[in-house]
Structure prediction request, 410 residues.
Amino acid sequence: MVDKRVPELRFEGFDGDWEQRELGELGEVTTGKAFSSTDFDNQGEYLVITNKDISDSSKSQNVVTNRINISDNETIQRYNLSGKNILVTMDGVNLGKSAIFSNSKALLAQRVGRIKSNQLEFIYQITSSNTFLSKMRMLSVGNAIKHISLKQISDFSSLVPKDTTEQQKIGNFFKQLDDTIALHQQKLDQLKRLKQGFLQILFGNKEQAPKVRFAGFDEEWEQRKLGEVVECFEYGLNAAAREYDGKNKYLRITDIDEETHLFKSEKLTSPDINLSNADNYKLKENDVLFARTGASVGKTYRYRLEDGLIYYAGFLIRARIKSEFSTEFIFQNTLTSKYNQYIKIASQRSGQPGVNAQEYSKFELFVPNLEEQQKIGSFFKQLDDAIALHQTKLEKLKQLKQAFLQKMFI
Prediction:
């Protein structure tokens, strides 16, 4: 018996039931060729697209991968990725991930599934869904390397409209959303690269002053250790073994976004402790927090009052910057490759990696006078605010897409 239902939200003029269809019925499902790695050539005419080139569910065009020269026209015609193709990873860590790919100078390798269809944008919404990803991973077999088959991809079924015109309208609608999301992602990535470039220019050299500076400043920068610019380093409240009651906010390492260095969690709990004895662990505006152990060692966070947190956990170290230094300037120094390299070396030890307060205090940085610090800090804060704004817009667009998917798909 055919399963027929209708979505909650539809375009005007369509009212028929949706029906269960397999991907193999909606398009042609194939895979690529087993190219020999001995034939790869860095100067080759064609890209060789493999599973590693599909790292996320996205629309991908630009990749850095192996290249090859091919003179066999039959091979080129059969495996060429011109036009629009949905690619699905069939093994490895990215198993089940999909992407739309188009490049006339690219050839498809074995173990990557390809779907071609005249309703590609509609089908892409199916293959990029969590339902498809979960199903493929559930069906995967193998010990060291999990894999799926073309038949498993082809047999995956979903409810779809009978009318191909409705499929096309839905596909085009989500394509516009995906294009808008991709545009905001590009802008966000550009801003992040811009910031990294400026961090390298201002903090990345070993000289006493950068070559690019704000007008009116020409004094040499002084070399300081982090311990010289910090009033004190204080370990957080170790309440991991206590019960949590949720009455007071309590910041943990997991509540800090590793990429943006901003507070990210809306579901905080609080330890059931005698808070009258915890005043020393209360956060103040512009406190800088350092993760001292585990996989997050070295991660930093600048506390802001709008985050509403009160206490900080034992795996964090708080630093309060002296008044003659700019907190923003010092914090930006912890986002550099120089800082990351220092943490990488300082945290090396047997067992779990870690950096204590004494080791943090030894990190060396160059510091100008307070006025120049403030100008530089303000400049980076504006960049951070722009990045956060684009990040928020991007997240809202992604949430909007998910809301439409829930209402327009079954």
Notes: Residues 11 and 113 are 31 Å apart (CA to CA).
